[in-house]
């Protein structure tokens, strides 16, 4: 079974975007995007994401929020130590501050 992107690329030589859209019953914007990607990269495969993966997982964020809500007077350094002891997540105090700021905690 062929995917829509393969079909679009195969039919690219003889058909317009509008004709492909009508043939495959796919929105024109998707057809156009696939054709543009094909022309730029020579493939329609998903490219690897850019940037470094996040250190904090969703579970780590929940643990962080629980620690902070329990005691609001803790320093970022002590929160980082607590996270390491509780779930083995080794992060810096700067990361703790950044994550808390993203969650809406200030100060």
UniProtKB/TrEMBL annotation:
| Pfam families xref list | HTH_32
Q: Which InterPro entries match?
A: Homeodomain-like_sf (IPR009057), WH-like_DNA-bd_sf (IPR036388)
Tell me the leader sequence span: none
Gene3D superfamilies in the record? Winged helix-like DNA-binding domain superfamily/Winged helix DNA-binding domain
| PANTHER family according to UniProt | PROTEIN CBG27172, TRANSPOSASE IS30-LIKE HTH DOMAIN-CONTAINING PROTEIN
Q: What protein am I looking at?
A: Transposase Tc1-like domain-containing protein
Q: Which organism is it from?
A: Staurois parvus
């Amino acid at each position: 079974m062929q995917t829509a992107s393969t079909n679009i690329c195969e039919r690219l030589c003889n058909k317009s975007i509008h004709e492909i859209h009508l043939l495959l019953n796919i929105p024109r914007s998707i057809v156009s995007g696939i054709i543009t990607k094909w022309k730029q990269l020579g493939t329609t495969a998903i490219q690897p994401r850019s940037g470094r993966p996040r250190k904090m997982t969703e579970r780590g964020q929940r643990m962080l929020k629980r620690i902070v809500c329990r005691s609001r007077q803790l320093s970022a350094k002590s929160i980082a130590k607590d996270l390491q002891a509780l779930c083995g997540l080794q992060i810096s105090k700067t990361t703790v501050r950044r994550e808390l700021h993203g969650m809406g905690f200030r100060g």
